[in-house]
Every structure is written in structure tokens, then in C-alpha cells.
Queue: 2 jobs
Job 1
Amino acid sequence: MLKLHEAGDFISITGDIPLNGEFTVRGAKNFVSKVMVAAILAPGKSVLMNVPKIRDVQIVSSLLRLHGCAIEYDEENGVLEIDASQVVQPEIADVETLAGSSRIPILFCGPLLHRLKSAFIPNLGGCVIGGRPVDFHFEALRRFGAEIDVQEDGVKITAPNGLKGAKINLPYPSVGATEQVLLTAVCVDGKTELSNAAVEPEILNEIDVLQKMGAIISIDTDRTIHIEGVKSLRPYEHIALTDRIEVGSWACAALATHGDVFLRGAKQSHMTTFLNTFRKIGGEFDIHDDGIRFYHPGGKLNPIALETDVHPGFATDWQQPLVVALTQAHGLSILHETVYEERLGFTKALTRMGASIQRYKECLGPTKCRFNERNFEHSAVISGPTKLHGANILVPDLRGGFSYLIASLAAEGESKVYGISLIDRGYEFFREKLTALGANIG
Ligand code: EPU
């Protein structure tokens, strides 16, 4: 804690002030980083617009540069150019410098196999919110014909006999594994059928990009994706969809602080489930052509029973910000996290701030999830309303970190939130946005 303090990696927030104001939310972290990787598939210059200045974009840019791509980023206009005319095999030692930085490197497998016939992927990072294995990714790659050699510092992937279309059924609709299959299948020899795929808006938008590049992809109503391999792809030009998780996070901040924020760029169609939940709790929103206004209309907030799920369910990434708002609802809210086994640890600090949250190992919801009877505290009962008070807290992960900002904004007194550089991974200019909304930060 002291070390983080010395490094200036903290923010102090004096709370109990409603957030009021507006700003623009730019492209989605969990989309932009993936289509940056897709650029490798096509020799030439791809152009991505509405790109936020977040650390995940910097990490993927570094990895692309190491592989020979030229990158130009116009921060103000959010325009990112990726020239993948040349793709080269970097020194393994250089790739290793990015080990532990993010989960995106695993998606380089297919594109690098297509361009270089082999890939070395550094050990992955990303938020610690459960085991986060990549077994589905490796199983899918093996089905395409890849050989995987897990080494101490990373994974070497080759395809001595080339890659062929495959029939793949995911044990769980994993976002990353679906993207792995898409980014590999588009250029293999033959057809691929992916069943039990994830269909998050970011994935559908990635499919749009791949189609622009020349891919042939169709989706059945039962979430089966068909990909016909093509010989080559061309660069793309695309405007990234707005970050629906960032929008939901700020909406929860407005609700928990009795505030009123207009988020330019927010799109209703990507947020249907969130909006329904927000309204059931007692929050209000107005949909405009250029964004959504979220506000606390006055009166009591209502408790809710909620399960996180894959799209179109309530996204797990909205869960942590929403929990803070639920500490202000009148009654018992019940939460069942079904996507990650360990995404409720962040609630311990909220309890220190005055929240009443009990965690349970049982499934507190109708969905029998993968964590039933597996000793993970993945359900919670939140009893409200409780007045929160300031505390010194350490950011545990990206979304948990943002939820600590919300708790501090809603709390009486001063909080110090340490380790906030983690929040820069996914929330662009969050300090400036807090100031613009009238928060008292230092
Ligand atoms: N899983 C496996 N094996 C695999 C892959 C996944 O067991 O090979 C499990 C995971 O352990 C998890 C579940 O399947 O329990 C879902 O994981 P998924 O693969 O869908 O997650 P991901 O692709 O690693 C992305 C986002 C996450 C978001 C999830 C779910 C990125 C970079 N990350 O992760 O975002 O929570 O999908 O929607 O796109 C965040 O932004 O804070 C974040 C964690």
C-alpha cells in the first residue's frame, strides 16, 4: 500500500456529491483490442476510428509493433492506423516483456499462423477474477490442425500440416474462444461450424469487420456460427461501437450518487438488459439519438434478484458497478454471478465502507451454474440502504476498481483508492471525467 502511495498511484475522493454533467464515451475496450489483432490478417493499412486512449490499446499496439506492424494513433480524433504490410517473427525475449499484461495476446494465434506459419504467445495477464483458463482456445486450435507447445514463458504454436476448417462445440459460450475461432477460421482451408458461440455485441461487430475484410460468416438463431475460409483478406476501415460496459459503469455511478449524467455515444440496442435492470431498481434514463441520459429520479431505489450471464443476459462486467448502487436500495438484493467463479471478492472492501453484503457458495438463483457446489463464493445478498463512509481501499481488478470509485463518490467523507492505474486499462480519462461531473477528487 505504501509503495503504491509513493508511486502516486491513488486518487482521493471526498464523496456524497451527486455526479452531474456529460461527456462522450468512445469505443469498446473489448472490441477495439480484438479488431486491432484482426488487422494482421490482411497486408496493408487498416483504419479503426473511435479508439479510446486506454492501456489495453497501448499493450496491443506494442505487441503489433513487435510483429512488424506500423501503428499511428491520433488520440484526439481516436483514429488508429495499423499497417500490417510486413509481419515478422519477433525475438521471444521481446515478446516476453509483455507477459502478464493482458489476455489479448492469445488472439494472435490464428492471424500469426496465417501470416508467419507459427506464433509465440507470452503468458497471459488480465484481471484476477477466477481461474481464466484457455483450454477452449487450445482445443479449438488443435481442431484446426495446430500444434501447441506450452513452455515456461509462453506458448509456441505451429501448423506443420496447415489449418483446415473444423466442427467445434464450445463447452461454454466463451467470448475469447469464439473470437479465437473467428480469427482463425476466416482464412483456413474449408468450412468451420462453431456451436454454442458467444454473441456479445462486440463479437457481432467483429464479424462485421471481418466481413468488410472479405470473410464469409453467417450466424444461426441458436448461436451457431458458420465460417467459410477464404484465400485472402483486405484491410478494413471501421468505427468502433461504443463501450457499453463503460456506459453502464457511469450510469451506476450516477444512480449511487443521486446524479444525472448524459453519456454521448451510448447505444440503447447494446444495453437492453442493463436498461431494464436500471429501471427496475428505480433509476431512470432518456434515450436520445446521440446518447443516453441516466439519472436518479428521486424516491427509493428497489432491491432486485439478478443473475449475470452471457449476452443477451446481464453482463458480468456490469455487476461490480451495479452492486454499489444496490447498497442504496431499500431491501434485500440477491446476486448470482454465473460467468466468473471469483468476482465477488471486491465486496469485502465495500463492507468495510459500511455496506451489508453476505457472500454465499450456493447458487442463489434459478440458473444451475458451473460453480454450484464447487466452493466458490459466487452469490451475494446485499441489504440496503446503508450509508457508506470513506475508507482506504486497494483496486482489486478493473471493474472492481471502478466500483470502488463509485462507492467513494457515494460515501460520506474522504476515501483513498490505491492502485488506480489498473482502471486506466479500460476507462479512458476517468479522472478528467470525474472532474467534469463535479466530483471532489485529488
Ligand atoms: N473459460 C474457460 N476456458 C476457456 C475460456 C473461458 O473455462 O478457454 C471460462 C472463463 O474462465 C470464464 C468463462 O469461460 O469463467 C467466460 O470467459 P470468456 O472467455 O467469455 O472471457 P474472456 O474472453 O476471457 C471477455 C472480456 C471480459 C468479460 C468476458 C465475459 C475481454 C478482453 N475480456 O473475457 O472482460 O468479462 O469476456 O463477457 O474481452 C473486463 O472487461 O473487465 C473483462 C473481464
Note: The domain at 4-25+242-441 is CATH 3.65.10.10 (UDP-n-acetylglucosamine1-carboxyvinyl-transferase; Chain).
Job 2
Amino acid sequence: MAQDEFSIIQHYFADVGKPSPNTVLTIGDDAAVVGIPEGFQQVVSMDTLISGVHFAADTSPADIAHKALAVNLSDLAAMAATPDWFLLSISLPRVDADWLQQFADGLRYTAERFALQLIGGDTCRGNLSISIQIAGLVPVARFVTRAGGNAGDLLLVSGLLGNAGLGLAYQQGRVELPDDLRRRCLQALNRPQPRLELVDFLRSFASAAIDVSDGLQGDLAHILHASHCGARIDRAALPVDPWLAQHNLYQYALGAGDDYEICCSVPQKYRSEVESWNRLHADCHLTQIGELTDAGFTLQVGNQQVDLATSGGFRHFD
Ligand code: ADP
Ligand code: MG
């Protein structure tokens, strides 16, 4: 970027997040140096948000920063990894001190909340775009993938589905929402909460997991493909806002993106562990939406079975 790149980095990004005990060298040299503690494996992921594609250009800088980190944290949660550090590559159309300060403050808030450290990155001039590479830790072989599900396993989803998609539809003028719900939907869209609280539960009980970033139907299909299974889910069991159910807008729960909830499969023998989890975690309820089967992918709607294996099948019921 410009000659002041170094001062931008020093001023805004030198001290973001909670120092990781594993970092040997952080921002300021040509590269960072990090160790991996004995008995752990490193889990890495990367996601990019582009202005006008992944967020509206007028989104607040703090919300952009939060979401850029949150979508990466959500990938770690789905793998049952604990966040450790991240790298930030940011492309900026201009140096706007106010914007950068709000962005850095937003980034710092979320990095501290989830206890990880910004250890390096890149800064350049161009259309607004933010890439974050994240790294987490998991005890050797305790990570959870999309591939371990078995027929008979319970299918669970955390939180609520569809609100972020409704928020986006509202923002784009495609739907009208009552005041209170509108606030919650915009919050879901702009401030997704990565489900790191599920990491220990997933390590102990989940056979497979994925984060719901592109809509339940498509993301669950990834588990089915990787696990060589089918699934039967029940529309009436989907965790949605009552307003969404009342207006029969289930397509937002099944097909819209940006929920960043966790969908996982859990062997039936752990049913009581799921119940104990739910007694202690009202804010991150795990709802059983169905179960894994040998083959096929169906949605129960009343007494009818809708085939979800053909993409968009559910739409015929709205
Ligand atoms: P180089 O030109 O060798 O790639 P840079 O000038 O891009 O080095 O970066 C200098 C230092 O600042 C490096 O440690 C790099 O990781 C860090 N850095 C650059 N941009 C960012 C950023 N947006 N956030 C955090 N660290 C950054
Ligand atoms: Mg550079």
C-alpha cells in the first residue's frame, strides 16, 4: 500500500486479541512464528468477505470486522477446535482513519471475546475485502469432521435457523418484518455468534458436524455425502422463529445462508447427554431435527415426504 502502511499496521493492528502462549514472534517481522503444543494438532481455515458480495457496502466497520472473524471461528467450532491465532489480509479503497479505528475496535472486541490473537497479515489498496486465516488447536485426533455420521444418529441443530436469511431479505427489500423481529434478524445477519461453546460437547459426543453457512439443506447434504448416509428431517422440528413458522417461510431455514449455527450428528446412546446440555445451555439449545438413515434425504411435511435430494424440492411446499 502507501508508504504509511507500516504506521497503519502499528496503529490499528499491532495489539489485537489475547496473546497466545504458542506464538514466538508476531507482527513486525517478515513472518510470524508459532508453536504447536505437544499432544495437539493445528486446525486451519480461511474465509474472505468482499464488499457488495458478502456484506452491503454500508455495513458498519465493527460489524464487518466481527463477521469476518466470526465466520472463521464458526469453521473452527464445527471442527471442535479451540481458537489460537489469526492472520488478516485487508484491501482498502482509501485510508479512512475513522473507518479503520471502528474496524480495529470491532476486531479487537471479538478477538478478545474468543481469546485469539492477531499475529500478522497483509495490507493493500483496492476494493474493500477482508480475508482472515484462522488457526485453532485440538487434542490429537479429537477433531470432528463431516464424515463420521452413521444411520440412526440423532441430527441436531444449535440455536435458530433462518433469521440471518430473513435479515438479508429485509435489507434487500424482499420482505417486511415486524420491528422486534427485524432487529433480531439484522443482528443475526451482521453479528453471527460462532458456537465455540459447543467445542467440548462435539469432541465428546458428535460423530459428524458442519457449520450452517449456506443453508441447512445444502450443508446437511455435505454431511450425508461425506458420511455415506441419508437423512430424514421433520419440518415441524426445525428451530425457527414463530413468525417464520406462522408465515410458512421455511425456505429461509432450509435454503438461506449466514446462520452460522452447528448441525451435528450424535449417536443415540448420547441422548441423555444432549438433554443435559440443553438443561445447562438455554442460549445454545440443540434441537433434534431428525436422524441419519441409510440413504435418501427427505423432509417430513405433515404426512407427506418431500425429497430434498433434488435441490429446491422443499420450495414446492411454500
Ligand atoms: P512484507 O512486505 O514483508 O510482506 P508487510 O509490510 O506486508 O511485510 O508486513 C509487515 C508486518 O506487518 C508483518 O509482520 C505482517 O504480518 C504485518 N501485517 C501487515 N498487514 C497486517 C494486517 N492487516 N494485520 C496484521 N498484521 C499485518
Ligand atoms: Mg506485505
Note: Residues 5-139 form a domain with the 60s Ribosomal Protein L30; Chain: A; fold (CATH 3.30.1330.10).
